[in-house]
Write a structure and sequence with these properties.
single chain, two-stranded antiparallel ribbon, alpha+beta, 2 helices
């Protein structure tokens, strides 16, 4: 996850000196987009049932994944 101090934004301002837009590096923008997508997935899955860690390990072993 990107830290705000690492963004190094540049601002576009209007005639009144108000910030109207932000310029970010492409890498920072892409990382922010990935973070937003991850957070959206977490929000969508918030109400899904959970299982204990031991049960997860057992199921993964039974499926031959670990």
């Amino acid at each position: 996850m990107i830290k705000t101090e690492d963004l190094q934004p540049q601002y576009i301002i209007n005639e009144a000196g108000e910030k109207t837009s932000v310029i970010l590096s492409l890498a920072a923008f892409q990382e922010l987009m990935e973070d937003i997508e991850d957070l959206a997935i977490v929000a969508e899955r918030r109400d899904e049932p959970t299982i204990p860690h031991e049960q997860l390990l057992t199921e993964l072993k039974e499926d031959g994944l670990i």
